């Protein structure tokens, strides 16, 4: 006799309402289902909620596992859908959110089900996975001022579009604390430059876990100990004749909306003292409406005792999708972002050491791509002085 028939016969004495943990199945055949949670690099199964749905009756059983990875349920025969949701601690001591689903027809006395947990701690937008700003030295010990890049990663489980992303460098430094008036850090990020990914909205799809590289110059820098950035998605434009940079015609150029440098250049300090923000230009805005609406005039008392006035631009905090501060242990004075955007700082120092700042990997997405840590605290989220991820070129 199957589960449905048993329910029909004994319907006078039992109920199968979905909030009733007792299936009321004295007359049905029973099974012991043992669910075992599995997953890579999990040290502790901190707290996982299991929900077992009998799909014909709609009956639901719930159980919360704490510091346990297996549990046995006594269940009537039936067709079950099992979901798990919770929190685990990885072997790297990171607390991450996980989930799993499984399906099982139960018609024998003993059934075992292994549920592989998948990390589901997604962001809701792009993240700055890495900024290579520190630079490299050439074989004869010279500072090489190219081969820098931003690596922007889709840390969500949806396709995102890179169109209209803004990459900005900070106006201020983490290593110089001036008392500026007005101080607007709670509302906006004061910038020294900003460049915008071209596109009308849906021209540059990025799959979950995939990334784009925005390189200073999309060429092979290997001869100078830099990286092969030929396959970058975008590059900084440069018209500075003394830099001798070659525009790669196969790689679209970023649109420079604003820079304080000559020749429309974007410059990343090698010395771990700037902040970087990733924002998105809202629909209906253009580079010129952005500039028209986001001037920032500020003043401070300079070292000679006079007042310095400066007129620059800012990006509203509400446009920012991710940001990080960089600094140096002996020189850190302040963060440049609202703490809700980034409460810490990371470092690749000294300059030209060939090292980078990279986000910690929490684990893998279901498609096998890395899932990165983002708690809006770059001290905790980034690994200082990492090996650049593009050391061996851009491998997708
Ligand atoms: Ca180009
Ligand atoms: Ca963030």
What does the model show?
Pfam families: DUF4876 (PF16215). This is DUF4876 domain-containing protein. With 396 residues, this protein is mainly beta. The chain contains three helices and 27 strands. It has helices at 3-9, 287-293, 378-381, and strands at 30-38, 42-54, 60-66, 70-76, 78-90, 95-106, 110-116, 118-119, 126-132, 136-137, 143-144, 149-154, 160-161, 165-170, 188-196, 205-206, 211-215, 234-235, 255-259, 275-280, 295-301, 307-316, 320-325, 356-359, 361-364, 370-372, 382-386. Strands 14, 15, 19, 20, 21, 22 and 23 form a seven-stranded antiparallel β-sheet that branches. Strands 18-17-12-9-24-27 form a six-stranded mixed β-sheet. Strands 3-2-5-6-8 form a five-stranded antiparallel β-sheet, with no helix packed on it. It is elongated. The termini are far apart. The structure holds calcium ion (2 copies). One calcium ion is lined by residues 235, 247-249, 251, 253.
Main sheet? 7 strands, antiparallel
Structural class: mainly beta
Order of helices and strands: HEEEEEEEEEEEEEEEEEEEEHEEEEEEHE
**What general outline do the C-alpha atoms trace?**
elongated
Average pLDDT, rounded to a whole number, is 92
How many β-strand runs?
Answer: 27
| Distance between the first and last residues' Cα | 54 Å
Provide the helix percentage. under 10%
Number of helices: 3
Given as residue ranges, the uncertain stretches (5+ residues, pLDDT < 50) are 1-20
Taking all Cα atoms into account, the compactness measure Rg is 27 Å
Provide the domain count. Answer: 2
**Ligand identities:** calcium ion
Strand content: 35-45%
């Amino acid at each position: 006799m199957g589960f449905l028939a048993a329910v029909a016969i004994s319907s006078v004495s039992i109920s199968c309402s979905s909030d009733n943990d007792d299936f009321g199945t004295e007359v049905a055949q029973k099974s012991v289902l043992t669910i075992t949670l599995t997953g890579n690099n999990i040290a502790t199964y901190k707290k996982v909620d299991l929900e077992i749905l009998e799909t014909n009756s709609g009956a639901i059983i719930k159980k919360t596992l704490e510091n346990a990875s297996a549990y046995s349920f006594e269940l009537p025969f039936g067709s079950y859908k099992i979901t798990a949701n919770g929190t685990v601690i990885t072997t790297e001591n990171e607390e991450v959110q996980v989930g799993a689903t499984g399906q099982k027809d139960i018609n024998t006395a003993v059934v075992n089900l292994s549920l592989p947990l998948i990390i589901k701690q997604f962001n809701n937008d792009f993240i700055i996975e890495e900024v290579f700003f520190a630079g490299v030295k050439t074989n004869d010990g010279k500072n090489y001022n190219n081969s820098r890049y931003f690596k922007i990663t889709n840390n969500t489980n949806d396709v995102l579009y890179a169109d209209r992303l803004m990459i900005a460098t900070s106006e201020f430094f983490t290593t110089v604390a001036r008392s500026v008036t007005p101080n607007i850090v709670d509302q906006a990020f004061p910038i020294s430059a900003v460049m915008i990914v071209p596109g009308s909205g849906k021209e540059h799809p990025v799959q979950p876990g995939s990334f784009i590289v925005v390189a200073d110059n999309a060429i092979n820098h290997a001869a100078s100990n830099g990286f092969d950035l030929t396959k970058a998605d975008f590059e900084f434009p440069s018209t500075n004749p003394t830099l001798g940079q070659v525009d790669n015609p196969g790689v679209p150029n970023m649109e420079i909306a604003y820079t304080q440098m000559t020749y429309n250049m974007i410059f990343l300090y090698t010395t771990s003292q700037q902040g970087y923000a990733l924002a998105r230009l809202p629909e209906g805005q253009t580079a010129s409406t952005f500039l028209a609406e986001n001037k920032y005039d500020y003043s401070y008392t300079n070292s000679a005792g006079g007042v310095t006035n400066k007129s620059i631009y800012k990006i509203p905090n509400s446009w920012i999708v991710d940001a990080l501060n960089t600094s140096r242990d002996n020189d850190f004075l302040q963060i440049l972002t609202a703490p809700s955007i980034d409460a810490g700082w990371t470092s690749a120092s000294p300059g030209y050491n060939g090292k980078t700042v990279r986000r910690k990997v929490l684990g893998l997405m279901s498609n096998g791509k890395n899932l990165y840590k983002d708690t809006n605290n770059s001290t905790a989220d980034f690994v200082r002085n990492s090996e650049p991820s593009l050391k061996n070129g851009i491998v997708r």
